[in-house]
Fold:
Amino acid sequence: MDIKKIDKFIFQIKGKNVDAIVFTDQETISNPDFREALQQIVNVTHMPGIVAAIAMPDIHWGYGFPIGGVGVFDAEKGVISPGGIGFDINCGVRLMKTNLTYEQVKPVLRKLLEEIFDSVPVGVGARGAVEIDKKTLKEICELGARWAVENGYGSKEDLQRIEDGGTVGPANPDDVSDKAYERGFDELSTLGAGNHFIEIQKVEEIYDENVAKEFGLFQNQVVFSVHCGSRGFGHQIATDYIQIMRDKLADHNKNLPDKQLINAPFNHPIGQKYFSAMNCAANYAFANRQMIGFMLTKAARKVFPKAEVTLLYDVAHNIAKLEVYNGRKLIIHRKGATRALGPGNPILNEVYRAIGQPVLIPGSMGSASYVLVGTKKAEQISYGSTAHGAGRVLGRRAALRSMSYKDVLQSLAEKGIEVVSKEKKTLVEEAPETYKDVDRVVEIVDSIGISKKVAKLVPLGVVKG
Ligand code: 5GP
Ligand code: MN
Ligand code: MN
Structure:
């Protein structure tokens, strides 16, 4: 690999149609554990119509494209690729603020955590709280979070606080297979398992008083984070279209350095259909997080009847979008990457247009998580993108080999963190040790300026699948 250091945290790796850009530190660039992931971002530079291939400091291996990656393609000459978005379409994070302080919550933390665990369907095979038919699911495909709000889950104000208002398009429900619908019925309003979580957190530190105030954050405030996506519905859509592309676009895909980079020209009918089906899954995920947010609010009110729970923001971190940069229409794949638009950007929700987009970067159940704000710099150097998490360092199997359930529980207990989980195994697979140092990831993106730190959150209680 031909790697050139451009700046303290910016590296350039020789690619084919363009060079890859990696935002990280020297340690990660030279760490053999990340070689494969770096090779993946280089592979992306071989794809047709590629404009930029960028990796974030939370980079790690993923299907075809690395997680923590941004693949930018020309909308006319470029492609759309399911591996550039991920199987969990519109996996994302929402942050809900409360008017409660740490002192108020501390004595009833366990109760609050269990109330949440009992209110939100969690874990593999959990069924959703609502019965829906195909007609309703098609409506959800088109309307996303708007469907949820129109059906009593939350308020209209919430939509101003969701990326793209919680509805993306074009989203034609006819582009979704029956098999995907079958999987979608039962899982709406469920959290899922593994890396997905609900966390009760405390605002530990404020870095930018001004922006924190605009976001409604204050020291010692209790907040909730929710991380989940489109469940089996999105997974099936990704699977379906990978198969369709294999069957129908074999010739177009024959020269790829990795067959997992399978794609369709964006302008080809298959590319357009995948984009539309992907948007259906993204809308399902927006509705899902909106419904979970509603259930979470109800759970909090059981313990604190007067609690005010309001949405700060809901971001997508596995999605592709059409965006215009310098007058050029681009299809931007963010896979394990967060949009980070700066102040004044006209696409931003009105409530945040002047200040910039809230960016949510979770760490792990045993470390901090961060709220940041998008920047003009991100628009200039990373197509309005930043990191999405700490990123994995240790695989699930390796985690199970090296730690026990007891070890994980004990080390969390030592930090005063309460946990409830459906499966013991999940807790080990998701132990804090399996993730990179989130403080470092955030320091890097903040230092480069592709998003700026606003507040640090620490976990009090965690719900896992
Ligand atoms: P992904 O979507 O790539 O699976 O996960 C996003 C990020 O969430 C991970 O990179 C990791 O840093 C973070 N994460 C995973 N589990 C937890 C958790 O239980 N709590 C918090 N705060 N973050 C987590
Ligand atoms: Mn996910
Ligand atoms: Mn995710």
Q: What stands out?
A: The radius of gyration is 21 Å. The pocket of manganese (II) ion (ligand 2) is lined by residues 88, 91, 195-196, 229 (CB under 6 Å). DSSP finds 16 helices and 19 strands in the chain.
